[in-house]
Each structure stands twice: as structure tokens, then as C-alpha cells.
Specification:
The complex is a heterodimer of chains A (337) and B (312). By secondary structure, chain A is an alpha/beta fold. Chain A contains 11 helices and 16 strands. Chain A is globular, with a radius of gyration of 20 Å. In chain B, strand 1, helix 1 and strand 2 form a beta-alpha-beta unit. The longest helix of chain B has 13 residues. Chain B is globular and about 50 Å long. The chains are: A alpha/beta (337), B alpha/beta (312). Chain A: Keywords: 4Fe-4S, Hydrolase, Iron, Iron-sulfur, Metal-binding, Protease, Ubiquinone biosynthesis.
């Protein structure tokens, strides 16, 4: 690793208490969103109104940390003004960067607020340096968040061929589909990550105890059924059990979390500039736990990548807060594909 | 209520029919036979090439170019479609070869393709359905970069399309996905290989010869999705034949996605409906014999895609 290159720890904040605990426990940056469809975690009870965002930015900046605003859904003609207003507010509130997916919105931001730093969201589905360089040349993006589809060798190849800083997901809920390229939720519920900032939204979820077991449905579609004693998970539609050719199994993905802790030395050597923790919808307790572990691990790897080992206590702490209490290396590990 | 086509309108340009890229992996001869048949069909535009998985190689680029030549000689507008998910340097190499050939237009299915096409100064490309074009600013940008047509993302509604077009300075040619199992998602993981407990790198090409992928059902036996390698599709067939009057107002091209059988009969049905020989309702009924699952049209109506929506 180039020692001059610090790897930033980018932590989720779905609320002001989450933001403060992330900062207190060592996040270099927090990312957050407004309370509306302009971001990809548009969930009830989550996110920031302008007053709480102002307070969050003040809290972070006083401590020398950054705040990044996710505006990473795709505006349509009928609501375009809500997204440009959000960009204007971000500039006015002196956020350190906005994380965008829509090229039209990037063009607006670059033209209207040339001083505002632009990050390409994972929702932009840019998986190659050719795609990332498109956004760099046209809008001057300075960082891109990679979709969770590339192997480490492929991440390295991207980094070698772009001036744009690369951020990768390190931990948290795992989208098995390419982000920005998934309309499964739209198909089942009419609400999508792309346009509504929601996947498998709660208002379409039904839990029902039946003689066959606990059933979870999404807009009436049976996502899974749990026997007594099985822990019934939230019906995210790609993480249910389905029947394919007479076999019932997790046909798309198990309910599991991404955890790349053991790859940290390689991630650092590849030249990754920031690691993102997923989970703006999670509690401040989750943010505290995960930030603590990742701060310790990142400090260790930046001090001495060659002698880095994963401490069992770190894994134990992270597994406690993982979806399904299990974890995977995802696409970084080829057999996962 | 379904309205009859208003016949007397003079500002309507004849709507074209396009055949989208083949999303499944068929044996070489079956694929060649399919396109030989299409050459004799009344379809106007044909998109060719492998857009789903780089491991599929029954036809290589040179083979596709040969098919393209035959279709062009039969009077079709032919375009080569690029892979939707680019992962490796060899994926990029394949993409560069498509951009470098100048004989046929290109459908760009990721922003890397857009960058390369714009850099090559090409003005004959189509912005594909996976580019996430949802507003006039983004579409305007792609027009400036050389796009001469765009394919609406299937999850977008007719109303949102009307709003978008009203905001365009320069009216684009719009293509709408109008028939077929909906391409809903792409992944790095191959769900077909997973079904057979295989890894993608050693997948034994199990998707070869599955004419329309594998149906995934809920635990109640309801068909829900279709596994097509790294792509996930709907199990239901998106069918906008009943919505032709509204489509006419905004779309210049209708896309039919190739299916295992009867694709040519579908082209004929669309043609008859466009010519007014079949009412939209009759065309929808007529097409049921060629559907392997229930129809759906929810996306066009701004509803869950899985729904079959008929206005009261």
C-alpha cells in the first residue's frame, strides 16, 4: 500500500444519534439522506430533515470528519425539482460531497455548484473504468462506489485505469444483483430502489402464522415460510426460499451479510481509497458496533498490512449484527458467483 | 377502457417493430435457424449479440456479423447490442470490437459503451434499456453524445414517458419493450449454475438449450420469476398489445423479446394490430395462445409490474 493513501471509513447514518456514534467511534465520513425519495433508503422513521442535517454536519465538521449526502435515486420529469432542490441544499449546508447516480442530475450539480464534490453512487452501476471515466470526463466525479459484483483482481484493474478514487463495500446487507440494475421490487410491489429509494418496502409486507408455519409475503407474493423454531427473516424478495424444478431453497441468495474483513490487506494493496459500511436502516447500536471493529481493523492494516490478522473478537462482534448471523465474501470470492 | 385507434390522425409516423437481442442461450444451429426465419419476417429492426453472459459463445462476434449481413440484405435495420454487465478486461475487449466495427449500429447497454461510442464520434447508436434513463436531462445528454434512439427502462410507466418527452428540446425516437418475459435484474452470480450446484466458472453451460430459462415458483407453486443465467426475468409475459393506443402516442418502435417458439407469429400479430386489422383487445386475446405464462402490463400503468391491469 502507498502509505500516503489513507483508507477512509465511510459509515451509515439513518438518524442523528447514529451519525454521532459513528463519528465518536472513528468514522472518517458518514453518509446520510433526506427524509424523501431522493435517496436509496427511503424508509419510514429514517433519515434527516434540514435541521437535523445541519446539526449533523456541525457535529462532524467540529471533529474534522466529513458528511456525504446520498441523492442516489433517479428523478423523473414530474419530480425533477425535488432532486435539484436537494442538490442546492447540500451545497448550501456545506456537505462534503453528494453521492449521485443520475447523469442528468450530475450535469446540474456540476454546472450549478462547481465547487461541490461529486461521488458516483453504487446505484450508477458503473462496473468498469470505461464507465467510471465517462462520469469523470463529463461531470468531474472524484470518487466512484463500485457495485458488489467485481473480484479483487477486477477492482485492481479498475483502479489502475482511472483517476477516480474507488470506494468499495466492506460490510453489511448484500445486494446479490447489480445495484441500479434491479427491478425485482418494482415488479412485485411497484416501488423500486431506482425510482422510489425502496426495496421490498415494509408497507407491502405481511407476516402470517399458518398451520404450515410463519409465512412472509410481499404484496401477497409468498417469499418464505418458516417452520417452528426457524428464525423468520424479513421478506427481502431475493432472499426468500423458492421452488425451482421441485427443489425448495434460497434460489437467489441466503439471508447473509457481506464481510470483507479478512480481505483488508489485499483491498489496501489494490489502492482502494474508502470502505463503505452498509446499513442506514440499522440502529445506532449497530453503527457503534460495526464502526468500532472496522476502525480498529483499518488502523491495524494501515499501520502494517503485511502482518494483519483478523481478530476472532472482531468477527464475533460483526456476526452478532449480521443478517442471518452469517457472512460471505460475496463476489470478491469467485466461487460465490 | 380500451379505445379503438383514432384512424384519422395525420401526425402519426408508422410505428416500427423491433426484435430485441436474444436473451437465452440456444444451440448454434437453432440460433441461426431462428434468424433465418426472422429475415423473412416483417420485423423492421433486429438487435443482435450476447447481452447476458460472456461465457456464452455458440456464436462469436464474427458469426453475429454474418447473421447481421443476411438480415441487412433482407432490408432490416441491424444493430449489435453490448453486454449489460461488464466485469473483466476481456468483456471490455469484446465491447471495443463492437464499437470498432462500423457496418452496423450499436445498442449501448452500459455507460462504458456510451463513452467508447461517443469517443469514436459515432452518431448511430441506441441508448439501451439498462442505462436508467428516467428524465429529460439524462436523455438530452445521451442525445448530445450521439444516441439517435433510446429504449425505455421497462419499469418506467407510460405517464412518466409522456412527462419525459414533453420536457425534451429535441424529440427522440422512443422504443418501448412491449412483449416478453421482463429482464428484471443482472447479477455477478449465475442462478442457473447455482441451481445445479455449480460455480459460474465451471458452469458446464447448463443454460444451453433451455429455450426460455428455468421457472422459479413460490412455495405455493405460483410462477414468479425466470432464472436465465446471471439474469433474472419475470415469469409472466409482459404484453402491451392491449395498450397499443396509448403506446402509439409516444413510442416510435415496439420491442418484441425473442421467445422459444412463435416469435414470428407474434411479429405478425403486432403487425396486424398496428394495421388496425385486429383491435387491441382482440390482439391481446389472440396472443394468449403463444404465451407460456399469464400476461402482465403493470409497469406501463405505473403499478407493480406483475399486475395485468385493465382500466375500469
Amino acid at each position: 500500500m502507498n502509505p500516503s493513501q489513507r483508507i477512509e471509513l465511510v459509515c451509515p447514518a439513518g438518524s442523528l444519534p447514529a451519525l454521532k456514534t459513528a463519528i465518536d467511534h472513528g468514522a472518517d465520513c458518514v453518509y446520510l439522506g433526506f427524509k424523501d425519495a431522493t435517496n436509496a433508503r427511503n424508509f419510514t422513521g429514517l433519515n434527516f430533515d434540514p435541521a437535523s442535517m445541519r446539526e449533523g454536519v456541525r457535529y462532524a465538521h467540529q471533529r474534522g470528519r466529513k458528511v456525504l449526502l446520498a441523492l442516489n435515486t433517479y428523478p423523473q420529469a414530474g419530480n425533477w425539482g425535488d432532486w435539484t432542490a436537494a442538490v442546492d441544499r447540500a451545497a448550501e449546508m456545506e456537505l462534503d460531497a453528494v453521492i449521485l447516480a443520475d447523469p442528468g442530475l450530475m450535469a446540474y450539480a456540476a454546472k450549478t455548484h462547481p465547487q461541490l464534490r461529486l461521488h458516483l453512487s453504487v446505484q450508477g452501476s458503473a462496473t468498469s473504468y470505461e464507465a467510471i471515466n465517462f462520469y469523470h470526463e463529463r461531470f468531474g466525479i472524484q470518487r466512484a462506489v463500485l457495485p458488489r459484483v467485481l473480484s479483487l483482481a477486477q477492482v485492481e484493474q479498475v483502479i489502475a485505469n482511472t483517476p477516480v478514487e474507488i470506494e468499495v463495500f466492506g460490510f453489511g446487507g448484500l445486494c446479490v444483483m447489480v445495484e441500479g440494475r434491479c427491478a425485482l421490487s418494482a415488479y412485485a410491489t411497484g416501488e423500486s430502489p431506482n425510482c422510489n429509494g425502496a426495496c421490498s418496502p415494509g408497507k407491502h409486507v405481511r407476516w402470517e402464522q399458518t398451520p404450515q408455519g410463519m409465512e412472509t409475503r410481499l404484496n401477497g407474493i409468498l417469499i418464505d415460510r418458516f417452520a417452528d423454531g426457524e428464525r423468520a427473516g424479513y421478506p427481502t424478495l431475493c432472499k426468500g426460499r423458492f421452488d425451482v424444478n421441485g427443489e425448495t431453497y434460497y434460489a437467489i441468495e441466503e439471508p447473509t451479510s457481506l464481510n470483507t474483513l479478512e480481505l483488508l490487506p489485499e483491498i489496501a494493496r489494490a489502492g482502494v481509497r474508502a470502505i463503505k459500511i452498509e446499513g442506514r436502516q440499522r440502529s445506532p447500536a449497530y453503527v457503534t458496533q460495526v464502526t468500532k471493529v472496522w476502525r480498529a481493523a483499518l488502523d491495524r492494516v494501515m499501520a502494517d498490512a503485511d502482518n494483519f490478522t483478523v481478530q476472532p473478537a472482531w468477527m464475533a462482534e460483526l456476526n452478532k449484527v449480521s443478517e442471518g448471523q452469517s457472512h460471505t465474501l460475496g463476489a470478491y470470492y469467485r466461487p460465490w458467483k | 377502457m380500451l379505445r379503438a385507434n383514432g384512424g384519422g390522425k395525420t401526425n402519426e409516423i408508422a410505428m416500427k417493430l423491433a426484435l430485441g437481442p436474444l436473451l437465452y442461450y440456444w444451440p448454434r444451429q437453432a440460433t441461426l435457424d431462428f434468424y433465418a426465419d426472422i429475415a423473412d419476417s416483417t420485423v423492421d429492426i433486429v438487435y443482435l449479440g450476447e447481452t447476458v453472459c460472456s461465457r456464452r459463445h455458440e456464436l462469436r462476434l464474427d458469426d453475429w456479423l454474418e447473421v447481421a449481413g443476411v438480415l441487412a440484405a433482407a432490408g432490416k435495420e441491424v444493430l449489435l447490442s453490448t453486454q449489460a454487465l461488464i466485469e473483466s478486461e476481456s468483456d471490455l475487449k469484446a465491447l471495443r470490437r463492437i464499437v470498432a466495427q462500423g457496418e452496423f449500429g450499436v445498442e449501448a447497454n452500459d455507460m462504458g459503451a456510451v463513452r467508447l461510442l461517443a469517443a469514436a464520434g459515432r452518431r448511430d447508436w441506441v441508448a439501451g434499456p439498462t442505462l436508467n434513463v428516467f428524465n429529460p436531462a439524462t436523455l438530452g445528454l445521451l442525445q448530445d453524445a450521439g444516441a439517435r434512439r433510446w429504449v425505455m427502462a421497462p419499469e418506467m410507466s407510460g405517464a412518466a414517458l409522456a412527462d419525459l418527452l414533453a420536457g425534451m428540446e429535441q424529440t427522440p425516437q422512443t422504443e418501448v419493450f412491449a412483449w416478453g418475459r421482463l429482464p428484471l435484474a443482472h447479477s455477478a452470480r449465475c442462478f442457473t449454475a447455482r441451481h445445479f450446484n455449480l460455480q459460474k466458472d465451471t458452469c458446464e453451460f447448463r443454460c444451453l438449450g433451455m429455450s426460455e430459462g428455468i421457472v422459479l415458483r413460490t412455495r405455493e407453486g405460483e410462477p414468479f420469476l425466470t432464472l436465465n443465467g446471471v439474469q433474472t426475468q419475470s415469469a409472466r409475459v409482459y404484453n402491451l398489445l392491449g395498450d397499443l393506443p396509448a403506446l402509439r402516442a409516444h413510442a416510435g418502435v415496439l420491442r418484441i423479446s425473442p421467445q422459444g417458439e412463435h416469435t414470428r407469429a407474434l411479429v405478425d400479430t403486432f403487425r396486424a394490430a398496428l394495421a388496425g386489422e385486429l383491435s387491441p383487445a382482440a390482439a391481446l386475446e389472440h396472443s394468449r395462445q403463444w404465451m407460456n405464462d399469464a400476461p402482465c402490463n403493470g409497469f406501463w400503468h405505473g403499478r407493480p409490474g406483475v399486475e395485468q391491469y385493465v382500466a375500469a
